[in-house]
Write a structure and sequence with these properties.
This protein has a single domain, classed as Four Helix Bundle (Hemerythrin (Met), subunit A). Helix 1 runs antiparallel to helix 4. The model has no long low-confidence stretch (mean pLDDT about 90). It is mainly alpha-helical. It contains five helices and no strands. The radius of gyration is 14 Å and the shape is globular.
């Protein structure tokens, strides 16, 4: 299973991020490429505990859905809503200069992956308590989902 904890998987995500252009067209969803870049950065901040987010969870999300999302071979479906704090149309980081925001997202993915070995991880807003391994898996899958959204 791919995870940001493995160098080759992290490098794959970073290469694909670098392939996103401001005019990349979405295959689904309402975000444009620039919003997606900011969203990926915001979720790295969320996972490192730098960005506080509201909880939107229940027992099913913290057990069955979490297992399916993280460990089944199924790809994440389009249209799953995010929490307001990582939604670029509400509380998420507003896009500014594309190149600056892309460089920031890349740096945030790298910093997130470098957190390996840190003992304290925040709760995920939907999946609740997660281990380092689960966060690293989630971060890979989340970035992969949005990169596929833009053909990367």
């Amino acid at each position: 299973m791919k995870t940001l904890a493995r160098h080759q998987d992290r490098d794959e995500i970073l290469r694909r991020l670098r392939g996103v252009r401001a005019d990349s067209t979405a295959r689904w969803g309402r975000m444009n490429a620039h919003q997606m870049i900011c969203h990926v950065g915001d979720t790295c901040r969320m996972g490192s505990g730098e960005r506080q987010v509201s909880r939107a969870t229940g027992l099913a999300q913290q057990t069955v859905i979490k297992w399916i999302a993280l460990y089944s071979p199924l790809r994440w479906p389009p249209g799953v809503p995010t929490v307001p704090e990582t939604d670029q149309e509400s509380g998420g980081t507003r896009p500014g200069d594309f190149d600056v925001d892309l460089a920031r997202a890349i740096a945030l993915v790298e910093a997130f992956a470098a957190r390996a070995g840190v003992r304290a991880w925040p709760d995920h807003p939907i999946f609740g308590p997660m281990s380092e391994a689960a966060w690293m898996r989630w971060a890979y899958l989340h970035a992969d989902h949005h990169l596929r959204q833009f053909g990367q």
